[in-house]
Every structure is written in C-alpha cells, then in structure tokens.
C-alpha cells in the first residue's frame, strides 16, 4: 500500500468519521477518567485502548479490575458483552476479502461505530479500497486512544467526580440509532432490532437479554430477508 494512497484515503475518510470522533473523544475521556479513579495512570489507559479497543467492554473492565476479577470471569464477561461483533462481523467478510496483511487489523478494529461508517458509505471515487477501509478504522482507533489518554490525564489533574460517566456509551449508541433512523433508507431492520430487543428484555430480564436478543434479531432478519431485499431495491 502506497503512502500517497493512504494519505488520500485519510483525507476522504476524515469527514465521514467526524461524528465518531466527537463521540469517541468524549467516551474515551470518560473511560480514561474511570481508569484514573481506580488507580491506573495514562500509560495503562493507553495500553488498554491500544490493545483491547472494545468500548463497552473497556467500561466493564474498569469494574472487573476494581473488583479483582479472575481471568475466567473476565473471559466469560468479554464473550457476553462482545458477542454482537460475531453477527455484524460476518457481514463484513466479503468486504474484507483479499485485503492481505491489513485484514487482521480491520477485523480487530471493527467497532460498532466503524462498522456503521463502513457499511453506510461506499469507497469514494478515485480512492483505493484497501487504503479507505484502513483509513476509517485507523482514524477511529486514534480518536479512542486520544480521548482515553486525555481523559486520564484530565481526571488525574482535576480529580473529577466520575459517577455516571459510563452512561456516555449508551448515549452514543442512541445518537447513532437516531441518525440512521433519519436517513432515507429502510427502517425495517431498526424496527426488528427494537421489537426483538424489547421482547428479549421482557422475557430474560435486564441482566441476560443481550445474547438472546442478538439471536432473535438474526432469526428475524433471516426470515424476512426477501422482504428486506425488496424494500431496499425499491429505495435505490
């Protein structure tokens, strides 16, 4: 991959990732402050965001670290929290096919927000596909790391009360949902997600509904695939 191609891709990808940048700087800062509140400095915050890079799980990890949880508990919790990545990760296999050495990083960096940007936007004209996919993923990763380190340093300097900061992750997901709802595309997938999630919440309770909801969404989307394809073709 040529440096020039990546530079062009970064310039084209930046405007598309600006909403993610806004959210990740705030979210990352909240994570960094929480890390500072349990005694981890900016270096460990940087390492966590560089190597783990799983927003919601990083917030959960703060509680696990504070409680001194064992490796088995951490592994099970990580699987439960990030199980949703399996479902939308599968849908990106075709787009990531044949990308060579960067494919591993693209899979690693496929967060909810990065998936949203990559699935909602086509590769700009005149931009290399590999460079564009890498640029979006890399920019989002940099936003998260920058926000988390800055938040840790800020929290250490100002001793900010971190109570309630974990809610910013829920707020970002809500904003993304509203933004996609307002787009002139099919709203049926969103309705399926809302209805099945509420049903799973009522059936399994707030502590165990995420994975059942994901399976219910998968079944509903598979069953209604013809309807979804037809509706999508009418909107194009």
Outline the structure in words.
It is a single chain. The chain folds into two domains: 3-164, no CATH class; 184-236, no CATH class. It contains 13 helices and no strands. It has helices spanning 3-37, 42-51, 55-67, 71-82, 84-90, 93-96, 103-108, 112-120, 129-158, 167-182, 188-204, 210-223, 225-235. The model has no long low-confidence stretch (mean pLDDT 82).
Brief sketch in words of this structure:
The chain has 236 residues and is an all-alpha fold.
* Structural class by SSE content: mainly alpha
- Kindly report the average pLDDT value: 82
Percent of residues in helices: over 70%
- What radius of gyration results from the CA coordinates? 19 Å
List the defining traits of the structure above.
single chain, 236 residues, mainly alpha, 2 domains, globular
Break the fold down into its secondary structure elements and pairings.
Elements: H1 3-37, H2 42-51, H3 55-67, H4 71-82, H5 84-90, H6 93-96, H7 103-108, H8 112-120, H9 129-158, H10 167-182, H11 188-204, H12 210-223, H13 225-235
Helix pairs in contact: 1-3, 1-9, 2-9, 3-4, 8-9, 11-12
